[in-house]
């Protein structure tokens, strides 16, 4: 997600895995500044994004 897309909408909803205290994240790791976020939802789903790939020897 990026700021231009967030600016186009009237409401921006951000889904997160974990809500952390202010200042605990590296500012360079933030992709969308909080000024564009209107709602915050903490997801309760299981993260199934990781896919293990190995090469045969």
UniProtKB/TrEMBL annotation:
Q: Which InterPro entries match?
A: CoA_trans_fam_I, NagB/RpiA_transferase-like
| Origin superkingdom | Bacteria
Q: Which Pfam families match?
A: CoA_trans
Q: Which GO terms describe its molecular function?
A: CoA-transferase activity
Q: Which UniProt keywords apply?
A: Transferase
Q: What is this protein called?
A: Succinyl-CoA--3-ketoacid-CoA transferase
What is the organism field in this record?
Roseovarius nubinhibens
Q: What is the lineage of its organism?
A: Bacteria, Pseudomonadati, Pseudomonadota, Alphaproteobacteria, Rhodobacterales
